[in-house]
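Feature request disguised as a bug report, sorry. It would help if multi-protein outputs had a clear separator. Right now it looks like this:
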Amino acid sequence: MLSKADDYPVHQRAEPIATAGTDRNFYDRYFFNAQSPDGTQFLAAALGVYPHLNIIDAAVCWMENGKQHSVFASRILNMERMNTHAGPIAVEIVQPLKQLRLQLGETDGLSADLLFEGRHHPIEEPRFTWRQGPRTVMDVTRMTQNVVAQGHVSVNGVRHAIADWRGTRDRSWGVRPIGAADPQPAVPVALPQFFWLWAPLNFDRHCLFFHSNDHADGSAWNRSALLVDLESGAETKLAAPAAQLSYRKGSRRVSEAVLSGNGPGGRVEARLVGGANFHMHGIGYGHPSFGHGAWRGDLDVKAEHFDSAGADVASPGNAHIQSLVTAELRLADGSVHAGRGVLEQLFIGPHAPSGFRDIFDPA
């Protein structure tokens, strides 16, 4: 089937764009977050396209005072990947690689109209390819960009002006588990293990990006640290990236972290202190009812309220979070810069440096 996108010179294979290879798990997603300067208010959103499932879904979540207020929407894609809207939620590319608009029509008392503008050119992260034996579980490319958000969010009749809020947006595409779970597990059967740490950080004159996917022994299968100078636009890939983590006792949640790497002039270090935790199921990640790519009918729109502050930290369903962090960046020249960001965490199974031995045993 031909679609609107086929009129753009963006083809990668000798097929219409509606066909993205043969893997049913192919996806294409937008992600956004932004927080108030003091970290007391937070917004996150996602919109995903699943060409071979013929589904598009989206979610927007507002978090304040330990409460998450989410709107989830899903519809049949009808093979038109250029129609980036689902129910009341829409993403508009205003200026590619620079400005994107997110809108949520009023639903259950929540509405939003935000413009996200990049603080720098998007970075391309190292390709994520992860296999279990011969089976490819993940094969993903992601571009990430720290942003400034402008606009407004209305919550139960209260209008919040969003002025120069900093945050992050990304675009990822490729293959990862979506929709219904595979009924046939990879063999031989092994204890589930996935260690994911991601820290996009905003400072006045710099942005720092750190992520790590670790094996059970703590060695990384994908780890990177990149420093962006906002005045020059220069990107510096830091050598020997490393993370020192302190966990809250009785949980798998990081209380403090030191992220580091070596630049041409010496060591670069960021010290993070965790604050409020945003639960990623608020925008569909791992949600039991509104998970990404789930078939929910021709059109489905639902709202949900969640007590993030009172959530059970031991529940596997609450394992995937973004901790709102304060950050202190120390550059090789000795200068120190204050900033904010998030520290995304998803720790499943063993991780020797953290002392984890089972699927969800706590620190």
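(second protein starts here, but nothing in the output says so)
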Amino acid sequence: MKQTCLIMGMPITIEVVDAAVTQASLDTVFAYFRSIDETFSTYKESSEISRLNRGELPLSQYSTDLKKILALSAQTKRETDGYFDIQRNGYCDPSGIVKGWALQNAAGMLKAQSLHNFYVDAGGDIQVAGTKDGQPWRVGIRNPFNRSQNVKILTLTEQGIATSGTAIRGQHIYDPYHPGIPLVEIVSITVIGPNVYEADRFATAAFAMGRAGIQFIERRAGFEGYMIDAQAKATFTSGFERYVV
């Protein structure tokens, strides 16, 4: 069973190949994503994050999810030497961590329903579990200069993959140490991690580092990365090619 819904301003696709899957299984996950959007959307005036940014939400009224995301964001900032920072000019935007976190939680919801072979894709960030037709899931890395093409096809199972770049949303990631200078050295960096939450947060931080981001991924055990620079030159980590078809 496969279904796509437009939520959080992006297509979210769930495909489950287990015979036990039902429409209710997918509906539960899509409802979860809608609740996350209601909490963390920076475009909805009624969202918790919008109320926080307007100074209308006292700490005593923070939801459990908001407290969790703020704590995870602070942890990630420490682990990336400050390159992951959800605060800018007094404005809080946790988008760089919410999507991967929500994807990982959605995968947990499917597994809790005894579903073991699936993928969940939110705007190109993906969590895969098990296999499809007995083979690892195949995931493409889009060419940032031509979105209709894949530059690589990868095989993954029980892993997450996330890409940060400028091809879709333009310049939306910044270097917190040089906030007024656009990031133009690289156009995308894709990270494979033990789960999509980990891949997503480190892909965001690595992109903010510019060319140094691929070395940051190289140093992290259990992660691989593929970077494309503004001249369309690719650089990848030492273990990346083992995933390439």
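Even a blank line would do. Unrelated, but nice: The CA atoms of residues 91 and 219 lie 31 Å apart.
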